[in-house]
Design a protein that fits this description.
Shape: globular
Number of helices: 1
Number of strands: 37
Largest sheet: 5 strands, mixed
CATH superfamily: YVTN repeat-like/Quinoprotein amine dehydrogenase
Helix content: under 10%
CATH class: Mainly Beta
Low-confidence stretches: 1-29
Length: 451
Amino acid sequence: MKKLIFGLTISVIAAGFIWTGADRATGATSNWPQWRGPAMSGVSDEKNLPAEWSETKNVLWKTALPGKGFSQPVIWGNRIFLTTDIEGGPAPESHKPPVHMVGGNVFKHPEWDGIDKVHTFKTICLDRDTGKIIWENVSYEGPTLDYRHKRGNYAAPTPVTDGRHVWAYFGAEGLYCYDFNGKLIWKKHIDDITTLGMGVGTSPVIYRNTIILQVDQTAGTDKSFIAALDKKTGKEVWKVARPIQVSWTTPLLITHAGRDELVTSGNEFLISYDPATGREIWRASGLKSHAIATPVLGNGMVILSSGYPSKVIKAIKLGGSGNLDGTEWVAWQYNKGTSYVPSPILYGDYLYLMSDAGILTCVNPKNGEIVYEGGRVPVATKFYGASPVAFDGKILLTSDDGDTFVIKAGPKHEVLGTNSIGEPVRTSMAIADGKIFIRGDRHLYCIAKKG
């Protein structure tokens, strides 16, 4: 545990999740309502999207955004939603952050940041076709409960929408429900959430008439829980304690053989819950590492992974119950190729793992056999933010520098091109209505074929 915690040296970036699941991960063409899209897979079914762009080429519009944020834009109809953090003046001298304990000792990270300032957290709505900001509401203003990593951001969780309302989550600073006109419907303080001073990465999930949050905290089994709230009122529907230490991942909602499941990653355990009640369905030994990546779904199994300090990938067959350790329900395991923050992607017949340097490993998801490894991008760069997306036979990897590398999907590694928006990017792109939306450090870009 001590080695695990002290190894945490970067922030967790925007993660978010989910809508309604399916055994086959596919993407709808009109909306991108949550983290990683309609099925939370990062995959879009759209065709004829631009595969080339620059700061000016195929840019339909570009809108300056206030503050900074790592939340992915979500899209419904002609509305885009995202969140941002605007750093202000000094926090009151009386404001004190929580004390973090690891192994009975006070833990301090050399790259903590943010606690000494007041912050304004905003939820923003833009017009999808023009990029015009329609409304921006202050969700929270004041000092923050806990630190963040200096490379992180308090506006990291991705919002989620059902086409009538949008829910924005800021960890200890609350969950906020707005209608599409920007009217605040309700707000709720979830808990004094602490995540080892690294910031919150989990995003809200929609299941039927509830919003589900996975809240894994510094104090582990003393504080961690998963809960469902009534999406109309914010009232608690169910809440279950979790025997998990701090994580930054979000649960994956799936439906398999007529059974709905909420699959959660974690250091100690991988646990599936009934999303209607919170009842545990199955569990298996965890990743023994920081749980950040989004699980992926396909071929009748769910694949969960971690990248630091240990690289672990576990494939669990769906349909089991109880303790799955030592049973045929644990299909395969692999221990190379994963990244710290970005999630893997399962597209077509293959699972693609990516390292922090953007080196790809292609895996047969049915049995864990390696198809190829060592697939490199053309330049040395880092991938500590955006997760891959895929469409029309292509996989897109976006680096922290803002370069997007277009990779041909399939059993042979081939780089088809490189695009850049000219500013850093730490957020996964969204795809809707023939357009690609990329959130840079200062702007939101809409990439589309003109004419």
